[in-house]
Amino acid sequence: MGRACADRLAPTADVLVVVDRDETALGAAADALAGSAARIVPVTLDVTDAAAVAALADQVQGLGDLSGVAHAAGISPTMADWRAVLDVDLVGTALLIDALTPLVTPGTAMVCFASMAAHLMGLAGPTDPAIDAVLDDPRAPDFLERMREAGGEGIEEPGIAYSYAKRGVQRLVRRTAIAWGPRGGRINSMSPGLIDTPMGRQEFDHQPVMAVMLEQTPLRREGSADELAAVVAFLCSPEAGYVSGTDVLVDGGCVAAMEAMVAGPTPGG
After folding, report:
1. What's the pLDDT tens digit per position in 64-100?
2. Which residues contact 155 (CB under 8 A, 6 or more apart)?
3. Could you read off the pLDDT of 36-73 as tens digits, one per residue?
4. Do 53 and 95 touch, CB atoms closer than 8 A?
5. pLDDT confidence tier of residue 267, bands split at 50, 70 and 90
6. Do the Cβ atoms of 181 and 239 come closer than 8 Å?
7. How far apart, in whole angstroms, are the C-alpha atoms of residue 45 and residue 179?
8. Mean pLDDT of the 154-182 span
């Protein structure tokens, strides 16, 4: 998904900074993108490394004004344990936002990837306010321990941790929009549904519920990385100049269908 965003954003970029933890994948992406932007700058980075993220921001500042950011870094439930999921998907997002905030100028726009999993949490009832309070402080040194205390043993299930992490991203974006607005900056989150990517296929292979959700998706298909990238490109463009602090759900109607299924038939329906 991040690569698709890079493909979309490159043609309008004077400088495109491409970031990945995997140096081999990063090199391949940079080679493929060569010529599509005025300049491609590849950076190897672990988003959970605060010092490295700060160094990235310093490097970006030296390249000119920060116009658009597509933050797609993340790991899914089958890729790691609950601590790593929360650390990468939420704490890493907070670190990046903190580092980039001083660079925000009029016209800066950022999109952080969340997930429809955060929306589906509502099917089980309201989220515990105590957990939300912990999610709203991902920079705390004892964040993971506080999440374990607030969420109990259930939080140790990577799928549950993933949903909470993405809920935390949505909430973080809303708060950040308030801080960035007076500086002319915008930030939104985007929640993908079932997307045909290697990570998505891995989830299908290990989680039977994915097939159920696909059957319930009104469009009866998975989305593509290019379809997500088109939404990101819009949110980063001047055409979305009054869109900030919101989450855009790109799921083919899956969440709506799942909510309707749980609610049951409407009177007279």
Report:
1. 999 999 999 999 999 999 999 999 999 999 999 999 9
2. 82, 147, 148, 161, 164
3. 888 999 999 999 999 999 999 999 999 999 999 999 99
4. yes
5. low
6. no
7. 26
8. 97
Distances (CA, A) of 185 to 30, 46, 118, 155: 27, 25, 25, 34
Determine the pLDDT at residue 141.
95
Task: Tell me the sheet residues that pair with 106.
Answer: none
The CA distance from 141 to 137, in Å, is 10
Residue 225: per-residue pLDDT: 96
| Residue of 100, 159, 165 whose CA lies nearest to 134 | 165
Strand order in the sheet with 68-71: 68-71, 109-113, 186-192, 247-250
CATH code: domain 78-263 is 3.40.50.720
Buried b (16+ CB within 10 A) or exposed e, 92-108: bbbbbbebbbebbeeeb
